[in-house]
Amino acid sequence: MFADSLVALVTPMTADEALDLPAWQRLIEFHIAHGTAGVVVGGTTGESATLTEAELLQLVREAQAVAAGRLQVIAGAGLSSTAATVERVRALAPLRPDGLLVVTPGYVKPTQEGLFRHYAAVAAASDLPVILYNVPGRTGVDLAPATAGRLAALPSIVALKEAVAGPARMRELRAAAPDLAVLSGDDPTAREAILAGAVGVISVTANIAPRGMADMIAAARRGDAARAAELDGRLAGLHTALFLEPNPIPAKWALARMGLMGEGIRLPLTPLSPEVQPKVLSALQQAGIIPG
């Protein structure tokens, strides 16, 4: 159901921090034209922590209207409170997004049983397909493969975005949850994850280089390791540069350089530091995104 190159889409904003809906429409068309299979609306890269409920719903509606079935629209729905997450899922359900991306509850550090019950409550709140999202570096809690395996038995839980890198984690997931579609959540190791059994990626780099990511993932899924490595090599600088400051700060700066949106960003995030800008610019040039 969910596979290939999906993008954790930034949320364009004006200088006064309002949503920039014309730029949002341009970004959706940009991804349709360059092979992206789906967009995540209001995820971490989309500054989910600063979006209001009304803004999230508006972004989903606008994305659906522009996409018109040409790519999948997945809504970010995860919050630290189970009750609040369930409420958000119920608010999103009438819009019928293609799926829900639900991150593990941040900051509170639940047990594995707590994680299971959290996701079970989410799954019971609607019939929409759910993508689990495990990113311990941000949330402070790790969804264990065994817990993912338990959750895979629930009908609406169909996939997992896994940001723990390395073949050992992939082997554990494939053993514990063989029917769960695994999507890489770590751009630098996405190629290796695909070759080890993942079916796609939810990518930050794809914001900047959607065609490059789509082609690289397609090669890896075909088992063409040499071609995938060649294509990934062109993106390696971006994989690094886009995390020189907290995501999505570098990505938004890069998209502004590409003329797709302005530089608006909401506190507590701040614009890209002047001393980091040349490094991101160099990565854009090396990847052939803008002239060198």
Q: What do you see in this structure?
A:
The structure is a single chain. With 292 residues, this protein is of the alpha/beta class. It has a single domain (4-223), classed as Alpha-Beta Barrel (TIM Barrel). Helices cover 44% and strands 13% of the residues. It has 12 helices and 8 strands. The protein has an 8-stranded parallel barrel, surrounded by 5 helices. Strand 3, helix 3 (82-92) and strand 4 (99-103) form a beta-alpha-beta unit. The longest helix is centred in the C-terminal third of the chain and has 17 residues, at 225-241.
What is the terminal separation in angstroms?
Answer: 39 Å
Domains (count):
1
Q: How many DSSP H or I helices? A: 12
Envelope shape: globular
Tell me the structural class: alpha/beta
CATH class group: Alpha Beta
Task: Give the topology string: H per helix, E per strand.
Answer: EHEHEHEHEHHEHEHEHHHH
For the sheet with most strands, the description reads: 8 strands, parallel, barrel
Query: pLDDT under 50 segments (min length 5)?
Result: none
Q: Considering DSSP H and I runs of 4 or more, what fraction of the residues is helical?
A: 40-55%
Short structural summary:
The protein is α/β, with parallel strands linked by helices and 292 residues long. Helix content is 44%, strand content 13%.
